[in-house]
Each structure stands twice: as structure tokens, then as C-alpha cells.
Amino acid sequence: MTTTERPDLAWLNDVTMTELERNPYRAYERLRAEAPLAYVPVLGSYVASTAEVCREVATSPDFEAVITPAGGRTFGHPAIIGVNGDIHADLRSMVEPALQPVEVDRWIDDLVRPIARRYLERFENDGQAELVAQYCEPVSVRSLGDLLGLQDVESDKLREWFAKLSRSFTNAAVDENGEFANPEGFAEGDQAKAEIRAIVDPLIDRWIEHPDDSAISHWLHDGMPPGQTRDREYIYPTIYVYLLGAMQEPGHGMASTLVGLFSRPEQLEEVVDDPALIPRAISEGLRWTSPIWSATARISTKPVTIAGVDLPEGTPVMLSYGSANHDTGQYEAPSTYDLHRPPLPHLAFGAGNHACAGIYFANHVMRIALEELFEAIPNLERDTREGVEFWGWGFRGPTSLHVTWEV
Amino acid sequence: MAFAVSVGGRRVECAADQTLLDACLRAGVWMPNSCNQGTCGTCKLTVLSGEVDHGASPLDTLTEEERGAGLALACQARPVADVTVGGAPEGRTTHPLRDLTATVLEVSDIARDTRRVLLGLAEPLAFEAGQYVELVVPGSGARRQYSLANTADEDKVLELHVRRVPGGVATDGWLFAGLAAGDTVDATGPFGDFHLPPEAEDDGGPMALIGGGTGLAPLEGIARTALRRHPDRQVLLYHGVRGAADLYDLDRLGELGEEHPNFEFVPVLSDEPDPAYRGGFPTDAFVEDVGSARGWSGWLCGPPPMVEAGVKAFKRRRMAPRHIHREKFTPADAM
Ligand SMILES: Cc1cc2nc3c(=O)[nH]c(=O)nc-3n(C[C@H](O)[C@H](O)[C@H](O)COP(=O)(O)OP(=O)(O)OC[C@H]3O[C@@H](n4cnc5c(N)ncnc54)[C@H](O)[C@@H]3O)c2cc1C
Ligand code: HEM
Ligand code: FES
């Protein structure tokens, strides 16, 4: 950081976690312009903010995965997002069978459509609803919960868990000594995990003896010698990965897509009239407000130079996919939702060998949920008496979405 | 070296070392995609003709079986010949398009600036009620579309309802000028997707049909077909016109109402009030009459602004958009 042409990055010292959680775009826009790879003091880490640098780091042979410090404190080891080599290969081989396209195609419609209908039936004749809490999140958690084998855990409980884990996972602020600035911020995550163990341990006990077709039962048994199962301590961190991101993000994705469409009423109309446009609308929604905005990281395995910055071996870099998806080098007017923008690929699902394992499943959950919503309520309007607020730096989406319709 | 990739009626140029996905996205043709590295399967498509090189497509994402069935990952596959690709296989059959030579059997004035034209065919034409044919305007070579008022079994005499457009090549210049019984007319048909689902898929659910002017034509064929399939189904047919002088087929539709107690014909006059009829726009009349159109199907035909208003009215009453069918009488110079 000694080169003289480098812009003065002193402003980064004043960036706070609260500011990033409220609106990360301002700070990251400046980062993209001035220093696409920069050390951000409040995060205690290097940050990649452009599409090019995120992609380079995520796919480079000179980097491997590492979990962020707050993430590691929340999930423990070995979480799939933070391990490499044989352990990563084993965990991917454990989660992937249920998420393969051919497999997902077999049951996704029968799984998600009835769930979506059930939640819609509860409010479709009310003429008003708050879609995040009444629809997007419930459809998201119920679909995955049933897939995992958590049929008996209430949707509201699953929502509570992901919210607590999410805040704990992104409790990233560090002080000048690199210590967690708000250690008490992990308490609610710890409490959620204790509750998860109390509920999931007995299920695991049962699945060990009586395997069934639920995903977690398969995680325990698949690929193991007869009579043996994967150790529960070995799979819990990845269960937490699911109970946070995989539960939360399809809900975020649906809600952001809806808010984006509400900002372009003529595009909403087009999508409602032609459900075949829903996948494209979702793709743009994920670009516009990426649900996993900045939650995963990589670490250099040897000295490297990235975006003109020399990094010693063992330097962690956070991947800000939400920022990369607003890169003006790729997208014109990136902060505008536009169904018809040139349809370039985005980074909302990450890149490289740690890219999201649930893309196909997640895309279909969101698609079916929006199909059912528009089918049941084609005259949906945003309730303009209520504002829409987005929150989050690690994970981002609207906190609520009030809508009305004529009944 | 480049090949042509045809997708959904568009042709895109794709270099031999370029992926199908890249070529399409660059040409502004959207297709589902997410990871762009062959691992998620979102971009899976069917190669209908031609051949691709699957490149680095992983076996996990695209199995041997799927390759054998003609599937490919757009983000990995490169063309080795011109290819045609499609999404999920559709498999709906359509009636073959035919060139027809018809004889005018009858031309009659049925309302203000409105004529019924009956065209006799030598060979019966296979079509679905609600489809249209294209007529060649003699001399000019211009082609104009006219909807069939027939049911599918009325396949030897085609019935058209034509409204005069002042200065119009086909109407003012021909159909309302020299056309007479005995004339020969060149036509092509049938066209269009404005028709009922196959009988086996038709559950007899309630229907709302709104026609503006001669937009009534295909609705007559559709309503009669629907009632023949399910004689007691609820069918509301609105006919929107400017004044009572524009109304026609009142007797025919009145009779249909006598045979089918749940069929209702509602003429609506927008510009020239008459105490015998409803006033206003037919789309507003529908909104007044029907509290909820959940589970209904909707059929809109006529001038584009009326069709647009109808879509809004139907959605306001929560009809599912995929059950809203529309046929716009778009003028030839606006197509
Ligand atoms: C799928 C389809 C089905 C159709 N079915 C029927 C049908 O069943 N019965 C029927 O009468 N028509 C129908 N039409 C419309 C028809 O095809 C012709 O467009 C219409 O008859 C006018 O043709 P023209 O050659 O006389 O006028 P043109 O020479 O094409 O037009 C002359 C001028 O009038 C304008 N114009 C054309 N139509 C209108 C209008 N309706 N209102 C105001 N200005 C207009 C044009 O823009 C142009 O400036 C249908 C159209 C389509 C696309
Ligand atoms: C719209 C919803 C979702 C979005 C936007 C999303 C996005 C992401 C992103 C950005 C990553 C990190 C990638 C990287 O570091 O490069 C990730 C990882 C992951 N996601 Fe998703 N995800 C979603 C839903 C899901 C679902 C529903 C599941 C499972 C059913 C899932 C399973 C995983 C797994 C297992 C990982 C870790 C992969 C690894 O490290 O090897 N995701 N996801
Ligand atoms: S986009 Fe993921 S496999 Fe092609």
C-alpha cells in the first residue's frame, strides 16, 4: 500500500458495520472505483469488490476456501464453505446427490407447489399481506425443511433460526487489535444452535437406526461402509450452513425480485402476464440485490498479486458478490432493476469449486413460488403507504414487503 | 468458423469456439443460466437438430443418458454444425397450414359498416374455433387477417365478420367495394393460438368473453364450441360497440341463451346511449358483473386497447393470467 498513485483510502477507516448493513453500495462503489482489492479495517480483511477480481479470486488456483472469522465462530469446523481438499470433496459428495438437476426435476414441483398454495390460501382473500413474513420466507424454509427431514419443525422456528444464525454469522466487526468488536453478538447464534441440537439430535439418533429418504438421513449414510454413519459433529457445521443460507436466501431472492418488479410496474405486468419470464425476472432480482452479498472468502496459498496488490501467502479475501453484480464495467445503471437489460451472467451464486451447490433447487423454489403467487393474485400492488427497507451486508434482502390487491 | 443457432424463432450466430449460451446472451436472446461453469444445470436445453460438442460438461450435471436424449448444457456446448435448440419439449400438434382457393357464397350487410362474408371451400379445412385465415387482397397482393366465426365442424363454409376501415386497402377498397358472390378469393389458414384447450383438458369452467366490434367473430365459434362440450357451463359474452346500429347476431346469440341457461349475451354501447342496452365499456361491465373470476378463463378479441383493458379487468377480478387468451386486431401497418 505504499505506491504513490494509489488513491488515499483513509476514508475506509470511517466505514462502520452499521453503515454497511444499512447500505453497503455507497462504500463498495467507491472501492470498485478506487481499489477493487482493498483492506477494509472494520472487517479486518481484504475485500474483492469488482466482478473481475471476485471471479479471479474465486477461481484462482492460488487461493482456497476459508470461512470468515465470524462465520467460523458461528458454524464451527468443518463447514462446507470453509474447507478444502478431501473434506470438501466429501461434503460436496454428501450434499450434491439431492441437489442434482435430474434428481430435483423429479420432485420439485410436487414438493414446492402445494407448500406455496398452502401459504397463499391463508391470505389470498385478505386483500393485503406482508409477503416477506407471510410468503417468501415460509415457502423457502418449508420447502427445504421438508427436503432435509425437518417436517416437524415449524416454519416460524426455521425462520427464527436463520435470522439468528445470520446475524451471528455477519457479526464481523473487529477492533484495532483484530478482536471481535461485539462478542455478545454471537449469543443469539449460540442459543439457536443449542435449540437446533436439542431438536435435531434425536432425529439423527433415529436416522442412524432407521434411515429414510430425507436429505440429512442420506448425509449420515451415503458413501459410508455398511453399519457406519458420518459423525454428527462432522456434519453439524454444514447443517448450520443450510439452516442459515439455504433456508434464508430463496426467500430473500423472491422478495428482492418482487421489489424490483414493483419498481417497474410495466415489467411486473409483463411477468404476471407471461410466467415464462419469471426465471429471467429472478435472475435480474438476484443480480440487483444479491442475497449472499458478502459472506464467503478465499485465502491465498502462496504470494500473489491481485489487482496490483501484493498479497502474502495466507491472506484472506472476502468476496463481495453483491458489489460485483453492480459493477458498472458489466452493467449499465446497475442499481436499476431492469428485466430487459442485456442478460449477462452474474455472480449471485458465486464461482469456482465452492460455488453454490443449491442453484438449481433454489431457482426452482423461487420460480414456483412466484408462479403460484401471480396466478393466485394477478392484481398484486405494492402498498405504498409502507416503505420498503433493505438490510444486510453479509446477506441482504427487504425486511418487509407490504402489498394490497382488490378482492 | 461460425454456425447458426436457431432458438425460439430467432437465429443467432455462434462461433465454433463459442458456447451456445454466450452467443445467445450476446445477441440479447435470454435463456436460463446461473453458474456458467457447467455445474448447476440451469442452462439445460434440447438440441432439436444439428450437433454440439459438450466440451467440459460434467457427467454429474449432464448424464450420458441425457446426452443420448439430445440434452446439452448451453454454457458448455459449442456448435459443430448449424443447430436448432428448444427448451422443454412441447408436443402440441397444430392443424397444418394450407393455401386455399375459396368462392364467395354470400356478402351481407349485418350492421353499420359491418359485413358477413361466407366463403365456400372445395375441401374442408381443419381448424379450431377462434383461429383466423389470411386473405390476399386482389391486385395489391396485400394480406389481411380475418377470424373465423365457425365451430370446427363448420369446415366447408367459412364465416367472416368484417368491419369497414375508411380508406382501408382490404375493406374500403375490396370487401366493401367490388366483392360479390361468385368471386374467387385466395387465402391461407388456419393461424393463431386463440382457441379452446383440447376437449380432454377442458374442465367446463366458467368463461368470460369480450369482443370489440367484429372481435365478436371468433368468440361466437368459441362460445358455441364451449357450450357444446359442457351445455351447462357459465359463459358470459360481452359485445362492445359504439352504438346500437353496430350490433349484430342478436337473434343467433339470443337463441343460444335459450338453449343454455348459463349463457348470457351482454351488448354494451360506449358512445351512443340507448335505454335498451348497457352503456360504457364492456370491460367495465364485466368488472361490475363478476366479483371474482378465480377459476375462470377469459377470451378477449378486438382492437388492441380493448384487449389491454380486458387483461386489466380480468386480473382485477383475479383471473389467472395463463387462462387469459387474447386476439388483437392489430392493423397491418402496425405489425
Ligand atoms: C389476427 C387478426 C385477426 C383479425 N380479424 C379480423 C376480423 O375478424 N374482422 C375484422 O374486421 N378485422 C379483423 N382484423 C383486422 C384486419 O386484418 C385488417 O387489419 C382490417 O380489416 C383493416 O384492413 P384494411 O386493409 O382495410 O386497412 P389498411 O389499409 O391496413 O389500413 C388503412 C388505415 O387505417 C388504419 N386502421 C386499420 N385498422 C384500423 C382500425 N380497426 N381502427 C382504426 N384504424 C385502423 C391503418 O393503420 C391505416 O392507417 C384482424 C387482424 C388480425 C391481426
Ligand atoms: C437464491 C438463493 C441462494 C443464493 C443466492 C445462494 C448463493 C450462494 C453463494 C454466493 C455461495 C458462496 C459461493 C462462493 O463462495 O463462491 C453459496 C454457497 C453454497 N450454497 Fe447457496 N445460495 C442460495 C440457495 C441455496 C440453497 C437453497 C442451497 C441448498 C439447498 C444452497 C447450498 C449451498 C452450499 C452447500 C454452499 C457451499 C458450497 C461450497 O462451499 O462448496 N444454496 N450459495
Ligand atoms: S449455467 Fe450452470 S450448468 Fe450451465
Search tags:
heterodimer; A: 407 residues; alpha+beta; 5-stranded mixed β-sheet; 3-stranded antiparallel β-sheet; 15 helices; 10% strand; B: 335 residues; alpha/beta; 6-stranded antiparallel β-sheet; 6-stranded parallel β-sheet; 7 helices; 19 strands; 19% helix; globular; binds flavin-adenine dinucleotide; binds protoporphyrin IX containing FE; binds FE2/S2 (inorganic) cluster
Distance between the termini of chain B: 35 Å
The number of helical runs of chain B is 7
Low-pLDDT windows of residues of chain B: 88-93
Shape of chain A: globular
| Major sheet summary line of chain A | 5 strands, mixed
Strand content of chain B: 25-35%
Number of helices of chain A: 15
Structural class of chain B: alpha/beta
Query: Are there runs of chain A of 5+ residues with pLDDT below 50, and where?
Result: none
H and E string of chain A: HHEEHEHHHEHHHHHHHEEEEHHEEEE
Question: What oligomeric state do these chains adopt?
Answer: heterodimer
Strand content of chain A: 5-15%
Shape of chain B: globular
Question: What is bound: which ligands?
Answer: flavin-adenine dinucleotide, protoporphyrin IX containing FE, FE2/S2 (inorganic) cluster
Helix content of chain A: 40-55%
Strand order of the largest sheet of chain A: 1-2-8-5-3
Structural class based on helices, strands and sheet pairing of chain A: alpha+beta
Listing every helix as H and every strand as E from the N terminus to the C terminus, the arrangement of chain B reads EEHEEHEEEEEEEEHEEHEHEEHEHE
**Rounded radius of gyration of chain B (Å):** 24 Å
Domain 2Fe-2S ferredoxin-type (chain B): 1-91
Keywords (chain B): 2Fe-2S, Iron, Iron-sulfur, Metal-binding
Protein name (chain B): 2Fe-2S iron-sulfur cluster binding domain-containing protein
Cofactor (chain B): FAD
Give a description of the structure:
The complex is a heterodimer of chains A (407) and B (335). Chain A is α+β, with helices and mostly antiparallel strands. Helices cover 50% and strands 10% of the residues of chain A. Chain A has 15 helices and 12 strands. In chain A, the strands form 4 sheets. A 5-stranded mixed sheet of chain A has the order 1-2-8-5-3, covered by helices on one side. In chain A, a hairpin with a 2-residue loop joins strand 6 and strand 7 (309-311). The model of chain A has no long low-confidence stretch (mean pLDDT 96). Chain B has 7 helices and 19 strands. In chain B, the strands form 4 sheets. Chain B has a 6-stranded antiparallel sheet with strand order 11-10-13-8-9-12. Chain B has a 6-stranded parallel sheet with strand order 17-16-15-14-18-19, with helices on both faces. Chain B has a 5-stranded mixed sheet with strand order 2-1-7-3-5. In chain B, a hairpin with a 2-residue loop joins strand 8 (98-111) and strand 9 (114-121). Residues 88-93 of chain B have low confidence and may be disordered. Chains A and B meet through helix 13 and helix 15 of A and helix 7 of B. The complex binds flavin-adenine dinucleotide, protoporphyrin IX containing FE and FE2/S2 (inorganic) cluster. FE2/S2 (inorganic) cluster (FES) binds next to loops of chain B. Chain B: InterPro entries: 2Fe-2S_ferredoxin-like_sf, 2Fe-2S_ferredoxin-type, 2Fe2S_fd_BS, Beta-grasp_dom_sf, Cbr1-like_FAD-bd_dom, FAD-bd_FR_type, Flavoprot_Pyr_Nucl_cyt_Rdtase, FNR_nucleotide-bd.
